[in-house]
Amino acid sequence: MSTYAALPKVELHLHAEGTLEPELAFTLARRNGVSLPFASEEELRAAYDFTDLQSFLDLYYATTAVLRTRRDFHDLLWAYLERSAAQGLRHVEVFFDPQAHTSRGVAFTDVVDGLHDALTRAGTELGITGGLILCFLRDRPVDEAARTLEEARTRLDVLLGVGLDSAEVGFPPGPFAGVFARAAELGLRRVAHAGEEAPASSVAEALDALGVERVDHGVRCLDDPDLVARLVREEVPLTVCPLSNLRLRVVQDLAEHPLPAMLAAGLKVSLHSDDPAYFGGYVGDTFDAVAAAQGLDDATAALLARNAVDGSFASPQRKADLR
Ligand code: ES4
Ligand code: ZN
């Protein structure tokens, strides 16, 4: 076994809703009397054959219908945490999409409190630290994001930051500048998905218009050498998700994933799982997949793990423990 298996894993790009395995989806559907448009777990899993980001998002939002109560959100994230603890997870900054739930009549506080219950329990029972990052849906109106941020003011103590996700092409970061400025005023950290399917210019726009401290995906930055130079100079962490890129056909083959080029350029890259229930792997599996497809020497594995620690919003004390 390679030594990377023993490295402490820090997950910075993980959507809570993307950890919903078919088994739990059907359990929650039965518990809540919600029907899923699939006859069985096998049929649902067979639908995990995506052609692009949108084809995935359609299924991802459809299955969230089973999540209704504070307990559901706890059970969802707890299942992820228990499973990932076995793969060496030590710290996780969890994205969640409140608008995907409040738009269905679920209370914002039930979403946040349920997820927070699971993280609190993980601290005591698993020694895993972490926090919650509220993501705005970029394909929904800006004023809806602004209202969501106002709702979040009742839970600022349990929120680490804000992010931006969902359909990227046609939904640039710029219009969310005001919402992100307000989030910064409230003391929240800022990240955004950029350069996943949309071009490199969307990465620069996220940095300039939103003031993000970390970029999620960012793989398309390689198309623009000036942008790469800036990301290196400013040491902007990029949370790269190879299995996601493969399953959403951003790359055709893991062997061709630009991770080595990103590392060679000196970018602050780390490895993450994005939506592990849908993309075929949790954080440890992601390291395994990269190792199998591209090789992963000990120094590179250690650098990837170290970049995740450095790029996290953990306290200086916790970062020292994780290194
Ligand atoms: C997502 Cl892979 C990805 N990209 C953008 N938004 C998302 N939400 C959940 N997974
Ligand atoms: Zn993502």
UniProtKB/TrEMBL annotation:
GO terms for biological process: adenine catabolic process; hypoxanthine salvage; nucleotide metabolic process. Keywords: Hydrolase, Metal-binding, Nucleotide metabolism, Zinc. InterPro entries: A_deaminase_dom, ADE, Ado/ade_deaminase, Metal_Hydrolase. Belongs to the metallo-dependent hydrolases superfamily. Adenosine and AMP deaminases family. Adenine deaminase type 2 subfamily. It comes from Kineococcus aurantiacus. The keyword Chloroplast does not apply. It catalyses: adenine + H2O + H(+) = hypoxanthine + NH4(+). One of its GO terms (molecular function) is zinc ion binding. Its EC number is 3.5.4.2. Residues 8-323 form the Adenosine deaminase domain. Its cofactor is Zn(2+). Catalyzes the hydrolytic deamination of adenine to hypoxanthine. Plays an important role in the purine salvage pathway and in nitrogen catabolism. GO terms for cellular component: cytosol. This is Adenine deaminase.
